[in-house]
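Data availability (excerpt). The following record was deposited with the supplementary files.
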Amino acid sequence: MNDARPRWPLAAAGTALLAAGIALGYALRGPGSGIGDPGFGAHAPAHEMPEPGTSHPQPDPGSRIPDPGSPIPDPANGEEIAVTLTPEMAARAGVTTVAAIPGTSAAQLRIPGVVQPDAYREVAVTSLVSGRVTQVHAELGARVNAQDPLATIYSPELAEAQTQFIAARAEQLAHQQRQTRTQRLTAIGAATREELEMHEAERARVDADVEIARARLALLGIPEERTQRLTGPQDVVTTMPVRAPFAGVVTRRAANVGLNVDPSMALFTIVDLSTVWVIGDLFERDFARVRAGSPATITSAAYPGLSMRGRVSYIDPQVQQETRTARLRIEVPNAGGRLRLGMYVDVEVGEAAERTGVFVPRRALQVVGSDAVVYVADGSQHGRFVERKVEVGGVTGDRVLVVAGLQPGEAVVTDGVFFVRAERERQAAERR
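Predicted structure:
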């Protein structure tokens, strides 16, 4: 039997029940419950649209955590390295900026240098004879004059050479007497001509022995007038002084009493410091600005306000492959001995070249790796500073001439620049 009752009341009841279930599900859903979220079990998105009329809290820029997925700026690819500071951070660090001022500078090429001795006026003093040191007269660092005694050497070799000369001279005198007597006997027929010729041949040998002995004494440092006075054992000297070849300063002393020496051993090193060399490295790009004979000015932190004049005497024709520089030598008069060996000095060399650029305070310049950089304030965003690589054209007092990388009017950080640089390093480390 067919049921003729209408079915719409049942459908309406089912629809109402479904709506009630949906409403109950939305009522039970809470933040972070994950019910009904896309991706069940995940937290709700942190950035939700605020209700109309409500403010959305902004994170503190000084405490923001960088996005780990964001790329690190790479200057080699043209990307900027920037530092962002909150007003509170800038105030605590005392960050101030100064605008770059256009200008020109007729600066000379400035390079570092090292003081070295004049190699042509530096001598290693040795003894002319072998023997033993009995006295030392010169101390390390002492100033000596030419021919001043530095040490005394006792030498049996010297005594032997004098004895040989005395013996050769005695034999020469005896032979002269025999030859004279033979000549007289030959004249009266008491001696043959052959005997006379034998004496004359022997005379040549004896004379050669004397000259050899004389030359040996000269090599050992015995002057000729002293040699002429050698007539017997009483005239033999057994000690020899080691003398300074010229006036200078003793920069090395190896001689001590009791030391056995020979002519190959350097006992002292003496340097004439009236003229010194300043050695520097000239970069390849500056070769056209300097030549042999160019004037140079030497200054040193040891003597503020003092400058010394010199001239370029030599430029190495070979370029060092590692540094692309050539060795430069400057001869500088050193009156008073102010320039000491091994000192670091500043050298301004070559003709002054006028260069155009912008001036910034010297304290604004920083060195990062091998680059000179400044931190430029971003005019479009307050508290943002961009690291800018620059080329320095010269230093004038407390100002630096920047010839590339900076435009007139751009503001660079001066006070607080170390804080900005430290913040740059910190933010770069967080991105890694």
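Summary of structural features: Residues 1-74 have pLDDT under 50 and may be disordered.
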